[in-house]
Write a structure and sequence with these properties.
With 534 residues, the chain is α/β, with parallel strands linked by helices. It has 3 domains: 147 residues, FAD/NAD(P)-binding domain, CATH 3.50.50; 133 residues, no CATH class; 135 residues. Helix content is 35%, strand content 18%. It has 17 helices and 20 strands.
Length: 534
């Protein structure tokens, strides 16, 4: 009897759902298996405090590829993105830096600190936009396999080199700097204002166990500049209804394409025979045969747990064992009975309708990293905060608010103590830090949720709590993600594919790994006897 399904997708996170939707649109019979009772992975909306709905883990959207929104008709399936307006950085003593999407406002605001920086800021934004346009096409394609025999991989690499050579010389130099230096060094080349340097370089450390002065973080800065909403570069937004509405829209597109989705169904292993994936074994022991398996789990979960070392080539298993996660991020979600008074004398709430960044200076950022290097969570952490109820009042009762706090650093491995015993201490540290900028905040809290890296691993299946399914360090990017020779979504087990953020182009609510991998699977299943391509 032939298998009931062409492809089983393990993991119903946003990448797994995108992957399944494209496979379904290609008339393949697809089953998605999701361990939790809701789809979305880390992109979910849940009511943690009665009446208050949170984007529990991921909390903003920008990197989601516009071609996915268009091709899957996500707006028709309910996706609505509400744009955030700028970044507000409060300072000790009551001053602040408030950058908005309004260029004149931002020029005046930066000019209060430095006229030179006010002029340089728009040159910087233009340079980053050019770099984003250069890199962005790489997000939608499989990396060239420079380790494959023959010329196909080298030919594709040559086309990339040709595009690089066609850049103006100044942009070639700029790109090489972004690939090699730290975010801190990069922004210091442009600006003299400490708070501006710190706030900009913060985008280079999100999700990485690196400091703002660590080489390689300038690329992470660029990674976060590559987002867009409705054609606007580096625009960030909040989905109406929380991040779960992103996943729900993708799931609706998949269901419309004929995909079957089973929640509350955990996959225990990938069954293989003769070097080929033949099905999936569930936690209850049931086995479901199929022609191919696509895993949106991270590489360690996929290969070392689901497949097992014995079924993998020894050199590949060893490389996966070296793949680095080093989770260092935490999340604190707060239910509030009113809006906290960030910003001192500033009137109204407009300054809080974007992101609030706790990044007052470069030394502050480095001290936060130094704590983590010593195996402690940061005594005064960097935080990226949004208050989504200022844009979407459906998330809390009238007059109430939810606050989402992304926190760094919180190393997965603590030197002293265990996370189950240190969770409340981390939450208290976050509240104490915020109270330095909004003294009334502690009295407004009616409920809180603290997610340590261990909680993130347990709840969402992200190894070591790494939000990107593996560090976005240069040695783990492009044709090295997850390991050299296997960056094209195929794996050493024929018929097994990787379609999550552990594959190119990496993490964020992007959907590109799922879409790219779907093209590979569709091509392979249309010629089932073809040999592995480069």
């Amino acid at each position: 009897m032939p298998p009931t399904y062409d492809v089983i997708v393990v993991g119903g996170g946003h990448n797994g759902l995108v992957h399944a939707a494209y496979l379904g649109r290609a008339n393949l019979r697809v089953l998605v298996l999701e361990r939790r009772d809701i789809v979305g992975g880390a992109a979910v909306t849940e009511e943690i405090v009665p009446g208050f709905k949170f984007s529990v883990a991921s909390y903003v959207v920008s990197l989601l590829r516009p071609e996915i929104i268009r091709e899957l008709n996500l707006r028709r399936h309910g996706l609505e993105i509400l744009p955030l307006d700028g970044t507000f950085t409060p300072l000790p003593g009551g001053d602040s830096l408030w950058r908005r999407d309004d260029p004149e406002h931002t020029r005046r605001e930066i000019g209060r600190f430095s006229r030179r920086d006010a002029d340089a800021y728009f040159e910087f934004e233009g340079a980053m936009a050019r770099m984003s346009r250069f890199v962005r096409p790489l997000l939608g394609t499989a990396p060239p396999d420079v380790h494959a025999p023959g010329w196909s991989g080298l030919g594709r690499l040559g086309r990339l080199v040709w595009r690089f050579r066609n850049l103006p010389p100044a942009d070639r130099d700029l790109f090489m700097r972004l690939m090699t230096i730290s975010a801190g060094d990069f922004v210091e080349d442009w600006f003299e204002t400490d708070v501006l340097r710190a706030t900009l370089s913060a985008s280079g450390i999100i999700g990485t166990f690196l400091g703002v002065r660590s080489p390689g973080t300038a690329y992470v800065l660029l990674h976060h500049y590559m987002g867009e909403i409705d054609g606007a570069d580096r625009a960030w937004g909040l989905p109406r209804g929380g991040m779960g509405s992103v996943s729900n829209a993708i799931a609706a597109a998949a269901l419309e394409a004929g995909v079957e989705i089973r929640t509350g169904t955990a996959a225990a292993a990938v069954r293989s025979g003769g070097g080929r994936a033949t099905g999936v074994v569930l936690d209850n022991g049931d086995e479901i045969p199929c022609r191919a398996v696509s895993s949106s789990l991270d590489p360690r979960q996929t290969f070392l747990r689901m497949v097992g070392r014995d079924a993998l080539p020894p050199d590949f298993a060893a490389a996966i064992g070296r793949y680095r996660f080093r989770g260092c991020s935490a999340k604190v979600n707060l239910a509030l009975d009113g809006l906290p008074a960030f910003g001192g004398p500033l009137p109204g709430t407009a300054h809080l309708a974007g992101a609030v960044s706790i990044s007052p200076g470069m030394d502050y950022m480095e001290r936060a990293y130094d704590d983590a290097r010593r195996g402690r969570f940061s005594e005064r952490p960097y935080m990226d905060i949004v208050i989504p109820t200022l844009l979407d009042d459906s998330l809390a009762p009238p007059g109430k608010h939810v606050m989402s706090c992304f926190v760094q650093y919180a190393p997965y491995r603590l030197r002293d103590g265990e996370w189950d015993r240190r969770r409340d201490a981390l939450g208290d540290c976050v509240i104490d830090t915020l109270a330095e900028y909004a003294p009334d905040l502690p009295d407004r809290i009616v409920g809180r949720q603290v997610l340590t890296p261990l909680d993130i691993e347990r709840t969402f299946g992200l190894t070591e709590g790494n939000i990107f399914q593996g560090e976005l360090s240069l040695e783990q990017l492009f044709f090295n993600r997850p390991v050299p020779g296997w960056a094209g979504y195929r794996t050493p087990v024929r018929g097994l594919y990787l379609c999550g953020s552990g594959a190119h182009p990496g993490g964020g609510v992007m959907g590109a790994p799922g879409r790219n991998a779907a093209r590979t699977v569709i091509a392979d299943l249309s010629r089932p006897n073809a040999r592995r391509a480069g």
